[in-house]
Amino acid sequence: MRRRALLAAATTGLASTAGCFEALDLRQSGTVVTKQVWGRVDPERSDAEGPVATWLLDDGELSARLPEEDAPLPTELPIEIDDDAATYLDENHGPYELTVNICESPGTSDGDCSGPSIGRETFNEVRLGERATISTL
Fold first, then answer.
1. Is the CB of residue 135 less than 8 Å from the CB of residue 53?
2. Which residue, 74, 78, 126, 77, is CA-closest to 99?
3. For a Cys-Cys bond, which of 92, 100, 122, 133 suits 29, CB 3.0-4.6 Å?
4. What pLDDT, in 10s, does the model give residues 60-87?
5. Domain of life, per the record (predicted)?
6. Could you tell me which of 22, 47, 29 has the C-alpha nearest to residue 116?
7. What pLDDT sits at residue 95?
8. DSSP assignment of 78-118, as one string?
9. Which of 15-24, 55-64, 117-126 is the least confident region?
10. 44 burial class (0-12, 13-18, 19+ CB within 10 angstroms)?
């Protein structure tokens, strides 16, 4: 009898916890307006952090601000971080984070924008100028 009560309580507790996690699953939805790498701006200094590379669409044209001309970072769409780019970023700008800036209403004064940090796989999947939904938890 005690085991059944304990099992019922545990099952109820797990179901309640799952509901809380689902409620906490924060998602950002909107149009991807920029993709960025944040890390050490200067490879010689470990304390200067900021945007290392930024990609955006300006009137449909790709605009890229890269740390150096010969960096193995993408210069054409789609913007994806491959193994060579990841190695370069680790060695020269790490630790680094990949971010996207997503706006619900791009181009408006209050576009309801956010810039979550995301994993490399998600960074590679989302496309500049397209709608995306990203889980931030």
1. no
2. 126
3. 133
4. 899 999 999 899 999 999 999 999 999 9
5. Archaea
6. 29
7. 92
8. S----HHHHHHHHHHH-S-EEEEEEESSTTSTT--EE--EE
9. 15-24
10. exposed
d(CA 30, CA 100): 11
Calculate the average pLDDT of the chain. 82
Q: Which residues contact 81 (CB under 8 A, 6 or more apart)?
A: 37, 73, 74, 89, 98, 120, 123, 124
Q: Residue length, the chain? A: 137
Name the burial class of residue 23, with classes exposed (0-12), middle (13-18) and buried (19+) by CB atoms within 10 angstroms of its CB. exposed
**Which tokens go with 74?**
């993408």
Place of tokens 């993709």: 35
DSSP assignment of 23-90: HH--EEEEEEEEEEEEEESSTT-SS-EEEEEEEEEETTEEEEE-SSTT-SS--SSS----HHHHHHHH
Please give the model's pTM, rounded to 2 decimal places: 0.75
Helices and strands per DSSP (H, E), number in the chain: 3, 7
Residue 129 gets which letter from DSSP? Answer: T
